[in-house]
Design a protein that fits this description.
This protein has one domain: Jelly Rolls (Sandwich), CATH 2.60.120. Strand 3 and strand 4 form a beta hairpin. The protein starts with a strand and ends with a helix. Strands 1, 6, 8, 9, 11, 13 and 14 form a 7-stranded mixed β-sheet that branches. A 5-stranded antiparallel β-sheet has the order 2-10-7-12-5, with no helix packed on it. A two-stranded antiparallel sheet has the order 3-4. The longest helix has 16 residues. The chain is mainly beta. It is globular, with a radius of gyration of 16 Å.
């Protein structure tokens, strides 16, 4: 597994949110319909009261694989993206980026990219625009603590049992490959 820059992982892009500021405050506009290949089906929020909270690395297999646009609307997070697409030139590569309410960045994440983050500030709120509904039978977590290559900014005190007992990279690639084969039939 090799770290690379966000721009090197095929299909991932960083998007600047549109923001208007005046004496009343600010207005931020997110336009997922212009950035997603598939139709938007849901918007979700992750509210994280503690610094160091670690979530992920999550992905769903077909037919529920999802594109995502991830924004941090309050606070800040250290975001990690890991390519699990079997036919990708960047398979097994990962990248990290800090996104925050202040830097107004969003990350577009195509299908087949596992995603996770750690909060850098208390009360960080992460917004997801998603192209697929949640499916428990198709949802997986790669254990974010298995890989010393992931240099998390804080010690991982706040990790769910599901994430800390998640599968490894090889299993994730295999599960994603099987789902692609099944959907092609």
């Amino acid at each position: 597994m090799k770290q690379t820059s966000i721009s090197n992982i095929q299909g991932i892009s960083i998007i600047s949110r549109k923001i208007s500021i005046d004496n009343r405050g600010s207005f931020v506009k997110i336009e997922p319909s212009t950035q997603l290949e598939f139709p938007l089906t849901s918007v979700a929020f992750s509210i994280n009261p503690q610094v160091g909270t670690l979530r992920g690395l999550h992905f769903q297999t077909e037919p529920y694989a999802e594109e995502k646009i991830v924004s941090c609307v309050q606070g800040s997070i250290y975001d990690i993206l890991l390519d699990i697409r079997p036919d990708s030139k960047t398979l097994g590569m990962w990248a990290a980026v800090e996104i925050s309410g202040e830097n107004n960045l969003q990350v577009y994440i195509p299908k087949g990219i596992a995603h996770g983050f750690q909060t850098l500030e208390s009360n960080s709120i992460v917004q997801y625009c998603l192209t697929s509904q949640y499916s428990e039978g198709h949802s997986y977590s790669i254990n974010p603590l298995l890989y010393p290559q992931f240099v998390w900014p804080y010690e991982a005190h706040f990790v769910s049992p599901r994430d800390s007992s998640g599968i490894n990279l090889e299993e994730a690639i295999q599960k994603y490959q099987i789902s692609l084969t099944n959907i092609a039939r």
